[in-house]
TrEMBL record:
Pfam families: ECH_1 (PF00378). SUPFAM superfamilies: ClpP/crotonase. It comes from Variovorax ginsengisoli. Belongs to the enoyl-CoA hydratase/isomerase family. InterPro entries: ClpP/crotonase-like_dom_sf (IPR029045), Enoyl-CoA_hyd/isom_CS (IPR018376), Enoyl-CoA_hydra/iso (IPR001753), Enoyl-CoA_hydra_C (IPR014748). This is Enoyl-CoA hydratase family protein.
Amino acid sequence: MKHYIGATSPMRAQFEPKAGYQAEHFSWAFEAGVGTITLNRPERKNPLTFDSYGELRDLFRALNYATDVKAIVVTGAGGNFCSGGDVHEIIGPLTRMTMPELLEFTRMTGDLVKAIRHCPQPIVGAIDGVCAGAGAMIALACDLRYGSPATKTAFLFTRVGLAGADMGACALLPRVIGQGRASELLFTGRAMTAQEGQAWGFFNALHDSDALLAAATAVARDLAEGPSFAHGMTKTMLSQEWSMTIDQAIEAEAQAQAICMQTEDFKRAYEAFSAKRKPAFQGD
């Protein structure tokens, strides 16, 4: 969670917006408080490379300080989300690496998921078509996920001779769809259909492919207009309470809510309610 840093604050230079960010290995757009990341190698179904892994990790880390960015959409170009690590640019080179090099790679991919989960903004996935391997993990790391009837999500690590335990899959997936369903997908590597994904809670909703990005962006814009400090607190507590007892969670939420009650947004909400108008949240 974070407060908006106003233009007159002496700290403003340390919390610059990402409106002008120029991405090198994917597309970035910023409008009305929403940043949109588009994986854009459509001719190959948007696979990841060593460079795109690193740039995505660094961008999500930097978004911790971009107080103008209130919500984020992650999507793919050309009717697909992401086919995972590029077979020729990643998988091939990995077979020739030493153990220390391999560990640096697997830690880097895990750092991307950590950066997404630690990013205080709500992250909305617009997931169409192929969503496989590391792409499935990026989707899983999002806070909200929207798919299309054509979406097929596969944690296919065992298909290439690897464990289903990759980038936090064994921790995150059971929490979203349940232990038994996650075990099946991680052992077999089979694709989860869009209908299964919606029924199991992986997708919040399904939309036709041509309406998917607009629907996900509309959700992100609604979130961006909300109390961003409180949204960040919600995301923090959703993550931290996994390892808490019920009593610990109740106490942690008491403290978190008391902090939120000190914000100007809380006062704005009360004043707007009293005046019978919609509150204009500012994130402070």
